[in-house]
Structure formats: structure tokens, C-alpha cells
Amino acid sequence: MKINRRNISTVFLVLGIAFLAIGISTDNTAFSWAAIAFILISLVAGGRWMRPRRK
């Protein structure tokens, strides 16, 4: 079974945005730190900047 990294990236990005909205609305820093972690995982999992460049 092959895991689609773009789908995982999208899921983590949506979770990060949701956690950021909750953290800002409730003024809770734990949600904000969780949002930062989810967004960073999203960038690492599916970001194009991680792929080697073509020459």
C-alpha cells in the first residue's frame, strides 16, 4: 500500500489551520503551538521544496 504524501500534507495543513483558529479565538497557546507543528509537518510531508531540482 503506497501512501499518498499530498493527501497527508493537505490533511495536516487543514488541521493546522483549524488548530490555529481555535488557538487564536480562545487565546490558548497550546493550540497555537500544535498548529505550528501541524503546518510544519504538512510542509515536510508534501512540500515541493523538499524535492531535488532538475538540471
Task: Report on this structure.
The chain is an all-alpha fold and 55 residues long. It has two helices and no strands. Helix 1 (5-26) packs antiparallel against helix 2 (29-46). The mean pLDDT is 84.
Order of helices and strands: HH
Low-pLDDT segments, ≥5 res = none
- Average pLDDT rating: 84
Radius of gyration: 14 Å
Taken from the alpha-carbon principal axes, the silhouette is: elongated
- Give the helix proportion (percent range): over 70%
User: Strand count, sense and closure of the main sheet?
Assistant: none
**Distance from first to last alpha carbon:** 31 Å
Count of strand segments: 0
Q: DSSP helix count?
A: 2
Structural class: mainly alpha
Fraction of residues in β-strands: under 5%
How would you summarize what this structure contains?
By secondary structure, the chain is mostly helical. It is built from two helices and no strands. It is elongated.
Tell me the layout of helices and strands:
Layout: H1 5-26, H2 29-46
Keywords:
single chain; 55 residues; mainly alpha; 2 helices
